Amino acid sequence: MYHHPLESPPNPISSSSVTQKRMMLQRCESGFKLRKLNDAVEEGNVTQMESNITHENTLVSEPEAGLEPQTTEPTTVEETQRSSAKSQLYKFCSVRHWKAPVYECIAEGPCHMILFTVKATVEMKEDSRITVLECFGDPQHKKKIAAEQAAEAALWYLKNVGHTLQTEKASGHKGQIKPISKMMGAGEPV
Q: Where do the segments described as Disordered lie (predicted)?
């Protein structure tokens, strides 16, 4: 509905007569509290908003801010198992001085129900021969999950064939050999 500018508005309460206070949540050392964000100052028909926010510049040292460097290497077997299958496969290949695993994604199905199948390819160099391992994951709606399954399949194969992972950092003993089945938390290799 169109109102002429000279006519009175349908709502008897005008915006300049009633000002709503805005509140903000302010974090304090003792917790949270509400604080008025703006003070309203009325002059005639004009409402002016003035901010009462003050800024405090203080420098915080790194230990107080919680910015201390953290170690990224897992320290226990359980923490090693929590890493993704893709990262475990990458570590396995790098320790053996093989090429990094290559993941190829294949999309199948109609565009509204697309499924992704990922192929993980590992090139294994042993003695004087090169063996290429190709493992496929189940079709999934997400590429990340499909890639994880393909990496898990490659790790499963390598574990069951009896490949081992050399760990120098974990035990401190140079050249110690650890079966990949132990790394994955499974039983003895078959």
A: 1-20
Beta bridge partners of 39: 50
Q: Give dist(CA 117, CA 142) in Å, integer.
A: 9
Structure tokens at 15: 């915006």
Answer whether 104's CB lies under 8 Å from 154's CB. no
Cα dihedral 49, 50, 53, 54 in deg (nearest 10): 160
Amino acid (one-letter) located at 26: Q
Query: Do you know the residue count of the chain?
Result: 190
Residuewise pLDDT in 10s, the chain (190 residues): 555 555 555 555 554 444 455 444 444 444 444 444 444 444 555 545 444 444 455 554 445 444 444 555 555 555 555 789 999 999 999 998 999 999 999 999 999 999 999 999 999 988 889 999 999 999 999 999 999 999 999 999 998 988 866 544 433 444 444 555 455 555 544 4
pTM of this prediction?
0.47
Q: What CA–CA distances, in Å, run from 9 to 18, 19, 135?
A: 15, 17, 73
